[in-house]
Design a protein that fits this description.
By secondary structure, this protein is α+β, with helices and mostly antiparallel strands. The protein has helices at about 20-30, 50-60, 150-170, 200-210, 245-250; strands at about 5-10, 35-40, 65-75, 80, 85, 90-95, 100-110, 125-130, 135-140, 190-195, 215, 225-230, 230-235, 240-245, 250-255, 270. The chain is globular and about 50 Å long.
Length: about 270
């Protein structure tokens, strides 16, 4: 049985026209069976503090969802009339699935101290899902956008996490004590998301061959998945799916949806099966 996967950096809901419109973002990906999102926010001034997690879940009520907010800081919380009112900025990733998410973990990736420009704590959200092709692991990933050395360290850590997962036991082991079956230890996985690197860089090579071999299953003829809203002629390939060979053998097609305008990035689709 075939199924589809899509990854989309949704740039806190703001599209190429500068407007916040989460409905058009959801419309662009709602036919996928598994959806990996990046730049999901809460309390961000650029989109009037919207709770994007709640809004996305409301727009896709038939999907199972998990999220991870690796960047989480106070933006003016206070006690008002005796009640603590939280005002926090959160920035992270989501995964939504047509099938139940058996296990989920949020992983923090290495970061350097950088005060001259924004440096958010980056992360990878892991989801174990039993698909029509069996149990597989999916990661929604977002790497640093400025420092190549930081990305190289993030890549090394990310691959160590992903390759070690079946042997470290995912989110929990010993469930038989409470009458539940053990989680399937899925060997095969795909890393989906905005890696902020292009194919001619050292980071791309490390994604494929260093610390375990992966396959770029998102390669397409035209490639690019990001454009500058102020200059549509400036394009880059920043969004990928990197998979184990066992996962890659299931992928029959990949494409970039250039019609989507809900972000400066484009959705990257993978089709698995016939």
């Amino acid at each position: 049985m075939a199924f589809t996967v899509v990854t989309y950096n949704i740039q806190y809901g703001i599209g190429l026209d500068g407007a916040y419109d989460l409905q058009r973002i959801v419309d662009a990906v709602k036919e996928a069976d598994i959806i990996a999102l990046q730049e999901v926010t809460r309390g961000f001034m650029r989109n009037d503090g919207r709770d994007m997690v709640a809004e996305i879940e409301a727009l896709l009520p038939d999907r199972f969802a998990v999220h991870h907010m690796p960047a989480d800081v106070d933006f003016g919380s206070a006690v008002i009339d005796g009640k603590a009112m939280q005002n926090r900025f959160q920035f992270g990733n989501m995964i939504l699935s047509r099938w139940p998410i058996l296990s989920a973990r949020g992983h923090l990736l290495p970061r350097f101290l950088r005060n001259s420009s924004l440096n958010l704590q980056r992360g990878a959200l892991e989801a174990l899902i039993v698909t029509p092709s069996g149990p597989l692991r999916f990661y929604s990933v977002h790497l640093d956008h400025i420092d190549p050395q930081e990305r190289l360290e993030q890549i090394a850590a990310l691959k160590e996490i992903a390759f070690a997962a079946p042997h470290s036991g995912l989110a929990v082991t010993g469930l038989a004590e409470y009458g539940f079956p053990e989680l399937p230890q899925a060997e095969d996985f795909v890393l989906l998301g905005d890696f902020n690197l292009e194919p001619d860089l050292d980071e791309y090579r490390d994604m494929l061959v260093e610390n375990g071999h992966l396959v770029d299953v998102s390669a397409t003829d035209t490639g690019w998945s990001w454009t500058d809203p102020s200059n549509r002629d400036l394009v880059k390939r920043l969004d990928y799916g990197f998979a184990t060979q066992g996962f890659a053998d299931r992928v029959s097609d990949a494409r970039v949806d250039r019609e989507a305008e809900g972000s400066d990035h484009m959705p990257v689709w993978l089709h698995l099966g016939d």
